[in-house]
What does this fold into?
Amino acid sequence: MQEKINPVKALRGDIEVSADKSISHRSAIFAALAQGESRIKNYLLAEDTLSTCHCIEQLGVKIVQDKNNFIINSPGIEGLIEPAAVLDCGNSGTTMRLMSGLLAGRPFYSVLSGDESLSNRPMRRIVEPLSSMGAHIWGRENNSKPPLAIQGSKLQGGMFNMSVASAQVKSALLLAGLQADNSTVIIEPHRSRDHSERMLQAMGADLSIEDNKITLSPGKPLSVCDWTIPGDISSAAFFLVAATIVPNSELRIRQVGINPTRTGIIQVLMKMGANIKIENSTIIAGEPVADLIIKSAPLKAITVNKEMIPEMIDEIPVLAVAMAVAKGESIVQGANELRVKETDRIKAISTELRKMGVDITELEDGFVVKGNPEGLKSAQVFSYGDHRIAMSLAIAALVADKTTEILSSEAVNISFPEFWCIMERIIA
Ligand code: S3P
It folds into this structure.
């Protein structure tokens, strides 16, 4: 599919974005751990999170769906059954990595596969630590790529000093650690999103956090869950940037998750000069949630360093768009992880924004952008089948001189199927 986007004069509206992808995945997988009925309200109905549902259903978990509200009935972790077919994780790295942690300790055989993009994403980062806990995992290219074949077994905990801050790897280790004979200690180089820790603590797990160190002691029974999923700040980010860079705009985005391990994009945009207000703050199911009100504002350049990356890893492509219209030279560095996302996002966003007239130079671990507040040039651009590249380019198109065409625009269905409808609504 392709989408044509015209430049706009203003954006206005009062919107909600789709439910948080990270929390949705976890709510389904964690519900599978606890015996009985868990209730999830506002589950994200997108391709990635539905892949997770299909995987847990194949393990014997029953899901009753009423629109985006789910009742998940699990036989409990000990009652999960060997899947009769390959577990298809689609495009979702979170599904594959978290499911691997769960399956590593189950006494049966399973195979996890994915689409072309996922089949090329690095898995050694979970295969090595899970194997050291006692699991048997095989993958292509010397156990580094999917499909993964897992023969689960008895696991031992241990101490894991992670070299990359990755919430997926951390969560895989926690899921394995819950099934181990002794404690698991994880030390992160920088704090990555902490939804797993919050949710497992709420379910009764013996988990403590001290700075970057997480200690999990297995054995405590986990209680069923009752979660309401907040709006996804990673989806809201597209509209934070859009309403900032399109003149005469004002948007309210309701009920967005503002967990401090995820709000890097708000902080960085505000340092660049963005006008973002936070209202109606509250806590829903253990996660801070608020309305975000954004008015357009001129932006100035900024440098984003390695320590700031984990809190905004998924928002860097759309940040590049903000940098493209900011005054001065912006730099993103220490973001090597972007090269191993759904696509090489450093290459993808640099190549496509260059087609739109942006002066952007790739670095090994980021990029340098010389901003032009006058706006961008229209072009035909490509999403590379990556949802966040498609949506970032759509935001760039709003400040181009003429119509921009985005190829492979259906990629938004991975995390934010309502994206194009909301765009239309706020332009009208
Ligand atoms: C996620 C963690 C991040 C992020 C991804 C979702 C999660 O990946 O990029 O979109 O839900 O745990 P890494 O763990 O690889 O950093």
